[in-house]
Write a structure and sequence with these properties.
The structure holds 2 protein chains of 2 kinds.
Chain A lengths: L1 H21 L6 H21 L2 E4 L2 E5 L3 H8 L3 H35 L5 H9 L6 H11 L6 H8 L16 H26 L3 H9 L4 H12 L1 H17 L2 H7 L12 H10 L10 H32 L1
Chain B lengths: L6 H26 L4 H6 L11 H9 L2 H32 L5 H13 L6 H10 L6 H26 L3 H8 L4 H12 L1 H17 L2 H6 L8 H11 L4 H21 L1 H13 L1
Chain lengths: 318, 274
């Protein structure tokens, strides 16, 4: 009798031990479920949606690559597409110059240990705390042609002839938005580059100085090559963000990319196709929208992949 | 080019000039919120002559700001908690145990950082409709949790890997199960990493307006950013109220930032570098 209870206890113990061992496999499941259902599944679904004809939000026949063909060649869709695509490219290039170029210079200055570094960091970073929608509206008020602070300021300092209807003129609207975006992202860039500068071993800088490298030569030959990891991060992030640009344009110029689609981006156009308003009306074009999503997705991943590969090779070569 | 005598002064002027461009619009926003619309139009750049709180009163009378605020708080707090729980469980598994599929799993989570989820918004909309989650805060909570998981798993896995195993092994010999080890031994040592994830995700979920724009139409379910969106449609002439609204929307984050500015800045950059 005694023996029997002992072995029953033993079995129970063993079971508990087994449970303890394999229960660990339950750990990643909550994350996998939520992430799988709300991120991975929708992205793959968008891929399959692009091969079907859609009637509003209801799926119709399989049409193969027709949506893609229409997107690239059928007016007015192709016109919107190429127009927005060009804007995205400009978005990226100007962000690289205004936001990242400036951030690199400012991080270098802070790295050179000037007084007030903490204050400077906080000042550059502060805009990043605002919601993009607040940033958009705030600048919309500042850039207002009649009462906006910028035009009033220009008047006050005697540059009244430079006054513009910044957001109302197709020539300046997109650049104004890109500059606002740079204002928003500057501090983040400064922090990334500063972290990069601070991770450079002091000995290397000393060695450079001994070799007689000063000023710009020092920056070009020693700092920039060693900064490649942080330059890489900022470039990739800026690239992805430029091709996804939506919030700021929507907040400042609405879903049509006013004026006259001069600030339209692919993501804004995608929003119109998916949720209506693609040709001014309220019809949705889910198939076309999904095709656009697939194109954008492929474009972003191929370019990011190639760039990372190229830069990694460059880094190894050094 | 040698360092000349004017390099340093030039650095100062340049750095502080850009700082003023960063700060000025925010200061302008806050100062303008205390002006009447008439005063904003006549002297937009000056300090407010008459310090009025009328704008705030007008605003709060007309929009349910407290409801927005409460919704934003619920959504952010719940999703950040869910992110911390699910990501630390997953990261603990990936970093501490070596099964042959661990790398695959890690890569699967990493993928989420490169894929712009906005592009899946149509299937998401249909999914939320099928799950009956449209116009509920749950739609937002699930979205912020799901999109926050990749980077959080990445950051936490990195930290788990740098931690010594000895304490865990001691606890294991004492008979502690995995959950107990994670909760009692590992997580208390992980506070800096958890703080980073928390701040990063809090900024993200508090400020987002894309998902509520698509999923929420019910006025009483709106978060602050989408609430601001409708504000602009309604009060386009009342600039005082508009500035007050923008200030109110930004204040919680600015206050938090001044309480923990270092952690905020580190949190955001950690997210990108790690």
């Amino acid at each position: 009798m005694q023996l029997a209870t002992d072995s029953a206890k033993e079995v129970k113990k063993q079971k508990k031990r087994n449970w303890k061992r394999w229960s660990i496999h339950l750990f990643p499941i909550p994350a996998l479920l939520i992430y799988g259902l709300f991120v991975v599944y929708p992205l793959f679904a968008a891929l399959t949606y692009s091969f079907f004809d859609w009637n509003g939000m209801v799926r119709g026949d399989f049409v193969g690559l027709k949506n893609f063909k229409d997107l690239f060649t059928l007016e007015p869709f192709s016109g919107y597409f190429w127009n927005a695509f060009g804007h995205n490219i400009l978005y990226f290039v100007l962000q690289m110059i205004f936001q990242n170029g400036l951030a690199f210079a400012l991080a270098y200055i802070i790295f050179k240990k000037i007084r007030g570094a903490e204050f400077l960091k906080i000042s550059y970073f502060l805009p990043r705390l605002l919601s993009v929608i607040v940033v958009g509206f705030l600048w919309k008020l500042i850039l207002n042609p009649n009462y906006g602070a910028l035009n009033v300021l220009l008047e006050k300092i005697g540059l009244g002839h430079l006054q513009e209807a910044w957001l109302g003129d197709p020539d300046t609207a997109l650049i104004a938005i890109i500059l606002v975006n740079s204002w928003y992202g500057l501090g983040f860039g400064v922090l990334i580059f500063l972290a990069g500068f601070q991770s450079i071993p002091k000995e290397l800088m000393e060695a450079g100085k001994l070799d007689g490298a000063t000023g710009l030569a020092m920056v070009r030959r020693i700092l920039i090559p060693l900064m490649i990891p942080s330059i890489m991060i900022m470039t990739v992030l800026t690239f992805i963000q430029s091709f996804e640009a939506f919030e700021l344009v929507y907040a400042m110029q609405g879903s049509q990319g006013e004026p006259y689609h001069s600030t339209d981006t692919l993501a804004v156009y995608f929003y119109r196709l998916a949720f209506g308003g693609s040709t001014g009306g309220s019809t949705t074009a889910v198939g076309l929208g999904s095709a656009l999503a697939v194109v954008l997705f492929l474009f972003i991943s191929i370019f990011t992949g190639l760039y990372l590969k190229y830069m990694q090779k460059k880094q190894v070569d050094m | 080019m040698k360092h000349t005598i004017w390099t340093k002064p030039f650095y100062y002027v340049f750095a502080f000039f850009i700082a003023s461009i960063s700060l000025y619009p925010i200061i302008l926003m806050i100062l303008s919120s205390f002006k009447s619309s008439a005063e904003i139009f006549t002297s937009p750049l000056a300090f407010p002559k008459s310090f009025t709180l009328e704008t705030y009163k007008n605003l709060l009378d007309q929009i349910p700001f407290m409801t927005y605020f409460l919704n934003s708080t619920i959504v952010s707090v719940v999703s950040v908690s869910l992110i911390l729980i699910t990501s630390s469980l997953a990261a603990f598994y990936i970093a501490r145990f070596t099964f042959y599929w661990n790398n695959m799993l890690f890569f699967f989570f990493l993928m989420g950082m490169m894929l712009p989820i906005k592009l899946g918004i149509v299937p998401l909309f249909i999914l939320m409709k099928d799950l009956d989650l449209l116009n509920t805060l749950w739609a937002l909570i699930f979205m912020y949790t799901a999109t926050g998981i990749p980077i959080s798993v990445l950051i936490l896995t990195g930290f788990f890997r740098t931690m010594p195993h000895e304490l865990e092994e001691a606890a294991r010999i004492d008979g502690a199960g995995n959950l107990r080890i994670l909760w009692n031994v590992v997580l208390p040592l992980m506070r800096p990493a958890l703080g980073t994830v928390m701040i990063l995700q809090f900024i993200q979920s508090w400020n987002d307006f894309f998902f509520p724009l698509v999923f929420i139409t019910d006025e009483m379910k709106k978060t602050i950013p989408v609430g601001m969106l409708s504000l602009f449609g309604q009060y386009s002439a009342d600039w005082g109220a508009l500035f007050a609204g923008l200030t109110l929307a930004s204040l919680p984050m600015i206050v938090l930032f001044f309480i923990a500015s270092k952690q905020f800045m580190e949190g955001l950059t950690q997210g990108a570098i790690k």
